[in-house]
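Summary for the steering committee. One of the milestones for this cycle was to obtain a three-dimensional model of the protein with adenosine-5'-triphosphate bound, which we needed before selecting residues for the alanine scan. The sequence and ligand used are listed below.
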Amino acid sequence: MDLLAVENLRKTFKEQVAVADISFQIKQGSCFGLLGPNGAGKTTTIEMMEGILPPSSGQVLYRGKAPGKDFRQNIGIQFQSTSLPDRLNCLELLELFGSFYPKNRPIKELIELCDLAEFLNREPKRLSGGQKQRLLLALALINDPELVFLDEPTTGLDPQARRNFWNLVQKILGEGKTVVLTTHYMDEAELLCDHLVIIDHGKIIEQGSPKHLLNQHFPERMIRLPLSQREALQALQLPLLQAGDRIELASSNLEQDFARLIQQGVSLEDVQVHSANLEDLFIKLTGHQLRA
Ligand SMILES: Nc1ncnc2c1ncn2[C@@H]1O[C@H](COP(=O)(O)OP(=O)(O)OP(=O)(O)O)[C@@H](O)[C@H]1O
């Protein structure tokens, strides 16, 4: 059975339709990603899934039923740092959050998991962006939830801090937890998520695993070679494209095409192979860049 099912979920703010009748399912133990540009409806959707925002219509089911008290006990939400109380240090915050739940994960374990030891006595406002996100994740895990919601957890972090955070999410997934994440970073979605729902203007425009979506929309890869190889390539009578100082040819079978190139005497010394990524997919689906 699916852990969570979203059925015809809709949210309107006055005249504006923020989320337009979307449906999808989330499997236990998976990392589910909601991907879309600014204003696509990600936060509105995740807040309805968390039970924070009432839908205008449609429903969310937890283990096949309307979410009740057991749902609230079994989920963790990564809050924004602005919603933390003032003047408490990280350790005190962990203790305070722990007191809200009957079941707690030992604080010592969370300190180790989220690497909090070096700043436990500091207030959150004096933490770096990456440290703050690790603290917020530890707070979301205090009740040892089976389902964790992360809303754009790495926005604004530097590349190293983002990588550290991804490692942490992978550790949590390794423990068997289910993660629901919104992001507008394609590399994050591609690395972490088993299943993606891509939304734009409140509607689902595609869903599936990153690999499946890319294979479906981009069955070919581009082989790029220096212009100096043009003559040898022309003998192959394949459709060639010139892109800057390189020649490109589309390949749906790399092994076979490389064998042909070698046979033809084409030098592979400076070859590049480009596989489409989610950014390419998003542009193909919507005609615009994800961050636009
Ligand atoms: N409380 C609200 N009142 C009115 N309009 C709202 C409200 N919350 C969201 N919206 C609108 O609904 C649409 C979807 O917003 P939402 O915050 O869900 O998008 P998002 O994908 O999370 O964007 P971002 O990546 O910028 O956070 C936007 O057009 C937004 O302006």
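Key point for the committee: The first strand starts at residue 4 and ends at 13.
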